Here is the input.
Amino acid sequence: MRNTLRRSSLSAAIGLGLFLAVLPASPAHATTVVPCNDIGALRDAIDLANVTGESIVLASGCTYTLNDTDNDSDGLPEITGNVQISSQGSSTIRRSPAAADEFRIFHVKGSGSLTLNRLTVSGGRANQAVTDGTFGGGIYNQGGTLTLNSTTVTGNEANRGGGVYNSGTLTMQFGALRLNKSTGQFGGGLNNQSSATLNSAAVEDNTSVTDSGGIENCGAATLRLNSSTLTGNKAGGSGGGMYHCGVTARFVSSQVSGNTAASSGGGIFAGAGGVTLTSSQVTGNSPDNCAPPGAVAGCTNPVSAFARNASESAGGSQRHRATETTTH
Here is the structure.
């Protein structure tokens, strides 16, 4: 990169002469602009950004369709450096529905940092029996740093973490994890095994054939939802909204509603302690809001039909609150 030198002169007293100071200007931040749906240029831009940190800008309103893999299980080059991809409007990076191979969209390695601004990531598939091939249908953050700003991860599928699998640091600001699916081992929208913070984000309408329709928060995981929503997610087992078996999960000014589990914990299943609700509500989930009973302080389950009928048949005028018991 060529540096531009700025010259300035200082005047001294008469007889002392002229002193010339040469001051280097701050180098301009380089940007690579990728033409609409030019996949070769996009892959080249990521390779360059891994080395130089140059920002990548996509064409506004354009869809970039991946028809094949860049490597064994990723549609784009692995993120090993500091990579930032933005669109001025709304751009999409997707795996083609007609693609012969299954592959995720992004893979962030331990040395890498990926920031996505105003993008949609969709159509990724990670169900392969190859190295790292079953983690994160849309994005697999393998120990790196992932930042999603006004970005939607939708319509992706994986054995673990249909939308995103995170074993690094994830920060999400606005945007959504929506309509993603876990086909085997938990976390339709997000499988978090490390540190994740969601600010004003939506986790909605994700599914899992087993536990954790919306979010799986397990292992050494810490999770915080600020002013976010966890709605409309479905689990074939427990934890329609979230299945927690990690270190901590904290909901602040957030809403957990309309989630469904085939077994228990329609809203939240807390297999371990550490779930806290601060100015947050868990309501309208099926078959219950939280399980096991009493696992989440401040979470109240609806009165079961059995208890309601028993109260009415006894002729009691006072409605009694009962905790619905389910089997996991």
